[in-house]
UniProtKB/TrEMBL annotation:
Protein name: GntR family transcriptional regulator
Gene Ontology molecular function terms on file: DNA binding; DNA-binding transcription factor activity
GO biological process: negative regulation of DNA-templated transcription
SUPFAM superfamilies assigned: Chorismate lyase-like, Winged helix' DNA-binding domain
Pfam family, one: UTRA
UniProt superkingdom: Bacteria
Record Gene3D superfamilies: Chorismate lyase-like, Winged helix-like DNA-binding domain superfamily/Winged helix DNA-binding domain
Keywords per UniProt: DNA-binding, Transcription, Transcription regulation
Domain HTH gntR-type positions: 13-81
Annotated segments matching region Disordered: 249-284
Amino acid sequence: MEVHADTRARVEPSKTQRLYLVLRDRIVGGALPPGSRLPSEPELSQVHGVSRVTVRRALDGLERDGLIRRQPGAGTFVINRGNGPAILADFSNMLAHLVEMGRATSVRLISFAYEIPAAPVAGSLRLAAEERAQRSVRVRLIDGAPFSHLTTWVPERIGVTYSEADLATTPLLALLERSGVVCARASQTIGATLAGPETAGALDVEVGSALLSLTRTVFDETGRGVEHLHALYRPDRYAFQMEMTRTGRDGARRWSPVATTTKPSAEDGSGTVRRAPHPGDLQP
């Protein structure tokens, strides 16, 4: 039976992503330790039943992630990237030290405009009908590598108090506070999703890669919404962490979060974070 070109185009990326994830899991899980040599492209092609092109694309993804190093004439080797993601966020203290994190990382502003948001966003911010909001899309980087894709909505009455240039250089929380906004509480959910083409390009991952997803709405003292954030994170560079303690007595015992006592930096869309060792930090 003849397979049309458009069908092959849909199937091939799926095979590439599957092989990429298989190899990545073996590397991250320790089955392929640092310094070990990967099978050759023909061997990988035969073992996994895919084309050489698929193998090459999967290896390209691993190389972009800094998990492997190709040495012409010698082979492909696993790189030691250190332990854990570049950033660990304290889940129990999500709004702490936001400005510090903004200063510890760099940001790339992708878009900035005033629009009428979709109903779910408008509802979470409690906007009036047809009320506009400032929409911005940013990518935050650490050590020059992207780890988060941030889409924020801020009511126009607040957004007009700062400029596009301000947002490209100053953490959003600092801009809100400069505008006189007092952030009193927030509602937040965390999940997972797959990278679409735009997000994949911005975070330098394959389309369909797994990402951490965070949605948060921040409210002021009067209960009005002042920011709606949808953040997507690379799980190999960012993770949430929570310290917990057992509290209560008898049948009422439960697990309660314990806020960190360290003094790290924090994320413009997360909370208290600790920066884990990075390979570049280990160089003399």
